[in-house]
Write a structure and sequence with these properties.
The chain folds into two domains: 10-153 and 289-320, 3-Layer(aba) Sandwich (Rossmann fold); 155-285, Response regulator (Rossmann fold, 3-Layer(aba) Sandwich). The chain is globular. α4 (87-97) packs parallel to α5, α7 (155-169) packs parallel to α8 (186-199) and α11 runs antiparallel to α14. By secondary structure, it is an alpha/beta fold. A six-stranded parallel β-sheet has the order 2-1-3-4-5-11, with helices on both faces. Strands 7-6-8-9 form a four-stranded parallel β-sheet, sandwiched between helices. It has 14 helices and twelve strands. The protein is 46% helix and 16% strand. The chain has helices spanning 10-16, 26-43, 58-74, 87-97, 116-124, 139-145, 155-169, 186-199, 217-230, 242-254, 270-277, 289-306, 308-314, 351-359; strands spanning 46-52, 76-82, 104-107, 129-132, 149-152, 174-180, 205-212, 236-239, 262-264, 283-285, 318-320, 325-327.
Length: 363
Amino acid sequence: MMARQRGFSRRDFLKGSLFAGGALSLSGLLSFVQYRQAHAQANGPLRAAMSSAGLAGTWNAQGQEAALWWADLLGVEIVWFDGEFDPAIQRGKVDQMATEDWDFVAIQPGSIGTLVEPLTSIIQAGTPFIDMDTLVAPFDQMREMGVLTFIAPDNVFMSESVVRRLVEKMNYEGKIAHIGGQPGHTGAQARQQGFYNIVNQYDAIEVVDDQPADWDNARAAALTESILNRHPDLKAIFADNDDMALAARQAVENAGLGDQVLVGGVDAMSPAIEAVADGRLVATARNSATRIHGWAVLIGAYAASVGLEQARQEIPFFILADGPAIYADIDSNPDLADEPWKLSNYGFSSAAGQVWLQEHFLF
């Protein structure tokens, strides 16, 4: 563990109640930012290691951008280890990471169980570790390892929200396919679960294909072409992320079936939000890369400043980074025209607001 001066006291922390009641208060955040900036100027930045499953994904790239923005604000120098969407490659890089000293480490694992050994070594050295988005191990094992906190979305909710809208647009009948992420990714497993939670409610819905594309856009497009060749009467596709959903949508359009096959995804990245707004996608749901990665840097910097044991007492083991589903439909019930506050989303689309929040690393 790297040596550093301790200066942000419990009293300073409690003045702002940074994590009081599991919430983030503005006064606590500003107090900590001021402390970190002054400390970094006097003593140099904290040094942190971060890794994501693969920076080729737009969600992962946005997360890195948000993490670096927060790191600059908090006086943290980040060394990034790209997992390249290959669990073996990520394992090799985390093995390398474990040979160095860090003030904190935050990782989005590409596959559950793959990184346990090097991360156990890192944690045993006294380094705060934040798990982002995907379980590094089953929860009991994570607690035994000493993981400080797990920041993640509700993948089942996101999947269910999108698939429910697809099924509605299908009139609750017809053929649907699922294009998955990497099989070892717990978020992908949960999105598959959410998919089946919805489609299994309707006897007239037939799942004609369910295969992983490993977050690979070319593979998602090829799978879509294969599915359409075998099932030209396909009515919908659900993909585990927006990148694959947009690749599937392009394959659908190339096949001349753009008016027949509905497509939805997860992450609510700006290109997908735009695709929902113009009708190319039916729905997406926000998996907030900016909050997951930004909060990881904030928590890691805090733990490095006050000490790991105090951080364990104050930071919850699980922090939900939730997000809404985004649809093209706008609630325009004429009976409520004079009382729009009773309409869903007040009768507005949430698309523009979601894009603005992402651009400013707020959501």
